[in-house]
């Protein structure tokens, strides 16, 4: 097995020690759940006893397209470190499996919490919503669009704070529009449903508006058992907000769940909205996230030999840098560009992971720092 934090190091697959199964320095425990791409098990670090969630992806059972999606998800998650985004700590791999070492959160899905409680109080709904918007502002500042925001992909930690998860549909938007229709029909915006080119940031705003509706109402603005009817409802964009929802919150929801993407509120407008700004016991400060283009100092690359092969392959997996020759040219040119900034973020993450301690080969795989490709 190798750790894809960086360069590859040969080591055993899953180590057997007195009946326990290990991935790197983590002892595998009970199964937490099963998703489209594999099992998720709890993992306990043998030294620190810290717990993580380990997603086990079986390469042999998935199509090439799904594997490419997993690779893109890994690369995108390593671009983002935010208090309200689920962290990806490391990736191990062998010929048969990928092992994604993720932050463990114990509170379950926001979806299940809503099913149990029904509609939330205004203050609790606002707390969750502010955390979601803070995280999405950070993602968008790093050119990342989630594209599948829904309560099932919003997890709660032991402090009852939001962690945005499942970036399997996410995309790096470095050009004006995206084309792939994705997401869940109940939370997807009209332009995505119609199969049009769209701005992923505006698509995320629509989804956040639907989520806010669900938080405060306890149901969805667009719903029907018949998928065709549901899609038509979304495309029309006509919905009712119950009278018990405060007027300012109604105004915010209607500004976000707006059929015309050009008339839809931006993240900055949402953060400045009176309902969001309403003072109460919340320590979260909604500051403007600067664009990564303005704050990331590019890593110095003077010749082709300076390009880190692991980082380069990670960039290729993102899907927006498909022409490798053109990517090399962009990395070597003198101008400040998004390619250099993304490279620098991934390279920084690689260097950070180099601090992982190497233990004996019989127990722990040396984790070097890099990206899956």
Automatic annotation (TrEMBL):
What the entry lists under SMART domains is as follows: S_TKc
- What taxonomic ancestry is recorded? Eukaryota, Metazoa, Porifera, Hexactinellida, Hexasterophora
A Pfam family assignment: UBA_BRSK
Annotated Protein kinase domain ranges read 26-276
What reaction gets catalysed by this protein?
L-seryl-[protein] + ATP = O-phospho-L-seryl-[protein] + ADP + H(+); L-threonyl-[protein] + ATP = O-phospho-L-threonyl-[protein] + ADP + H(+)
| EC number(s) per entry | 2.7.11.1
Name the enzyme group at the top EC level: transferase
Q: Which residues bind ATP?
A: 55
The reply on keyword Nucleotide-binding is yes
Q: Which protein is depicted?
A: non-specific serine/threonine protein kinase
Cofactors: Mg(2+)
Keywords assigned: ATP-binding, Kinase, Magnesium, Metal-binding, Neurogenesis, Nucleotide-binding, Serine/threonine-protein kinase, Transferase
Q: Which family does it belong to?
A: Belongs to the protein kinase superfamily. CAMK Ser/Thr protein kinase family. SNF1 subfamily.
GO molecular function annotations of the record:
ATP binding; metal ion binding; protein serine/threonine kinase activity
Among PANTHER family, the record links this protein to: MAP/MICROTUBULE AFFINITY-REGULATING KINASE, SERINE_THREONINE-PROTEIN KINASE BRSK1 ISOFORM X1-RELATED
Any single Gene Ontology cellular-component annotation:
cytoplasm
Q: Example GO biological process term?
A: intracellular signal transduction
């Amino acid at each position: 097995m190798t750790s894809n934090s960086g360069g590859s190091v040969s080591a055993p697959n899953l180590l057997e020690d007195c009946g326990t199964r290990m991935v790197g320095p983590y002892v595998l425990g009970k199964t937490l759940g099963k998703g489209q791409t594999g099992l998720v098990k709890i993992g306990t670090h043998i030294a620190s006893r810290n717990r993580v969630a380990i997603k086990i992806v079986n390469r042999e059972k998935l199509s090439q397209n799904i594997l490419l999606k997993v690779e893109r998800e890994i690369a995108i998650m390593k671009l983002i470190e935010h208090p309200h985004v689920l962290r990806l700590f490391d990736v191990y791999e062998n010929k048969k499996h990928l092992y994604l070492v993720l932050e463990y959160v114990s509170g379950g899905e926001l979806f299940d919490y809503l099913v149990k409680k029904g509609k939330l109080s205004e203050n609790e709904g606002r707390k969750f919503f502010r955390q979601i918007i803070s995280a999405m502002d950070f993602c968008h500042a790093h050119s990342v669009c989630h594209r599948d925001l829904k309560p099932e992909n919003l997890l709660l930690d032991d402090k009852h704070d939001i962690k945005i998860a499942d970036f399997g549909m996410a995309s790096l938007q470095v050009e004006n529009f995206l084309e792939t229709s994705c997401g869940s029909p109940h939370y997807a915006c009209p332009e995505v449903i119609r199969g049009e080119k769209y701005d992923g940031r505006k698509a995320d705003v629509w989804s956040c508006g639907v989520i806010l509706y669900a938080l405060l109402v306890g149901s969805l603005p667009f719903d029907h058992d018949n998928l065709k009817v549901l899609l038509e409802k979304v495309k029309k964009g006509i919905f009712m907000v119950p009278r018990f929802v405060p007027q300012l919150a109604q105004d915010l929801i209607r500004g976000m769940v707006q059929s015309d993407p050009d008339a839809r509120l931006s993240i900055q407008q949402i953060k400045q909205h009176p309902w969001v700004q309403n003072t109460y016991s919340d320590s979260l400060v909604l500051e403007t996230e600067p664009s990564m283009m303005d704050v990331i100092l590019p890593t110095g690359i003077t010749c082709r030999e300076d390009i880190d092969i692991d980082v380069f392959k990670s960039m290729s997996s993102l899907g927006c840098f498909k022409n490798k020759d053109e990517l090399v040219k962009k990395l070597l040119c003198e101008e400040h560009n998004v390619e250099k900034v993304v490279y620098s973020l991934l390279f920084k993450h690689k260097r950070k992971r180099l601090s992982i301690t190497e233990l004996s080969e019989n127990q722990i795989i040396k984790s070097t720092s890099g990206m899956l490709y």
